[in-house]
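Researcher: Go.
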Amino acid sequence: MTTEELNAKLQIVSMKGKRFKCPGGYREFGRGFAFFVPGLGYLAFKDSKESPYIPQGGRKALESILEAGGMLDYETIIFIQEMNS
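Model: Structure:
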């Protein structure tokens, strides 16, 4: 997919109760918001591949990214899956 196609599919989702695999077990989030792309998963940066990108500015920060057109490129980005219960 192109950058434009991925940006068009970005959804902002609540991270409350979401769990992700990490060394030694899993990490569960109690709050925050992240980008999600159906069929691919949660947007994460390659250098923090156990955790989705959850900006300090929360939903407003993600909305600002979307309003600006989305991510510039996906070279340093991967998509990760939530752990199944």
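Model: The first strand starts at residue 11 and ends at 14.
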